[in-house]
Design a protein that fits this description.
alpha/beta, Cobalt-precorrin-4 Transmethylase, domain 1, Methyltransferase, Cobalt-precorrin-4 Transmethylase, Domain 2, five-stranded parallel beta sheet, elongated
């Protein structure tokens, strides 16, 4: 089994990932992952749209597609050979010109948002920029409220649909953070200049 990162948006598949997909006989992944890899999947390859990998055995010859990078909130936990992909973290940091060593990753996708708010505040207090992997229910105003008092020089950045034609990156002060308009977004918070 191989778990292959297909990037966080169109055109972000690496040459290594493309070669693995092109040689596959069975490709499994979410609808979005399959769409991102569609031009690399052979015509005679079996494809399966998956929403849950926990309830079935995965054949040894399967190529599992993971959006972004399999080891960054992806499907790397399934095991097998891992082929890295371009993550939302890499794209957001590049777009904003933020060195990755200045970033602390916080997982809020499917987890306690209150805990993520506290982790973000702690990261910022240590001089880091918090990168929050959000889910559609993540409250940007809730994050801003949790960061209140950490300094008026803080910014909140909402990165939506990274890599897609409708990509949007909006920066605002912590007291009036930008809203998210898409279900596919991540958030950065801290002392960020653009």
């Amino acid at each position: 089994m191989k778990v292959v990162g297909v990037g966080c948006g169109p055109g972000m598949i690496t040459e290594e990932a493309a070669a693995v997909i092109a040689a596959a006989r069975l490709v499994m992944g979410s609808k979005r992952a399959l769409e991102l890899a569609a031009s690399h999947i052979p015509a005679d390859c079996e494809t399966q749209v998956m929403t849950d990998f926990s309830s079935l055995p995965i054949p040894e010859h399967a190529v599992i597609l993971s959006t972004g990078d399999p080891m960054f909130a992806g499907l790397g936990y399934l095991g097998g050979d891992i082929v890295p992909g371009i993550s939302s973290l890499q794209v957001a940091a590049s777009r904003l010109r933020i060195p990755l060593e200045e970033v602390e990753v916080i997982m809020a996708h499917g987890k306690s948002h209150d805990h993520a708010f506290q982790e973000a505040r702690s990261a910022i207090d240590r001089g880091k920029i918090a990168f929050i992997v959000a889910d559609p229910k993540f409250s940007i105003p809730g994050l801003a409220a949790a960061l209140g008092g950490a300094g008026k020089d803080l910014s909140v950045v909402v990165c939506e649909d990274l890599g897609y034609p409708q990509e949007r990156i909006a920066l605002g002060p912590v007291d009036t953070p930008p809203p998210a308009h898409s279900r596919l977004f991540c958030v950065l918070a801290g002392r960020i200049g653009r």
